[in-house]
Amino acid sequence: MKKLVPGVVLLCSLLSACKNGDGGKDQKTDSSSGSMASFFKAATPPYQFTDTGLLKNKDTVSLPSALILPFVADSIKNNYFGKKTTVKYTPLVKLKYKEAEAYYLVKAAGGSKKAVLLLVFDNQNNFAASYPFLLPDENPNTSQTTAIDKNFTITKSVTQRNGPDVSGEGKEVVAYDAVTKSFSLIMMDALNDSPSEAVNPIDTFPKTNKLAGDYYLNKKNFVAIRDGRYANQLLVYIHTENEEGDCKGQLKGDFLITSPASAAYRLGGDPCVLGLNFAGNSVTIKEESGCGNHRGLDCPLSGTFTRKKAAIPKQTSKKAKRK
Question: What pLDDT is recorded for position 149?
Answer without folding.
Answer: 92
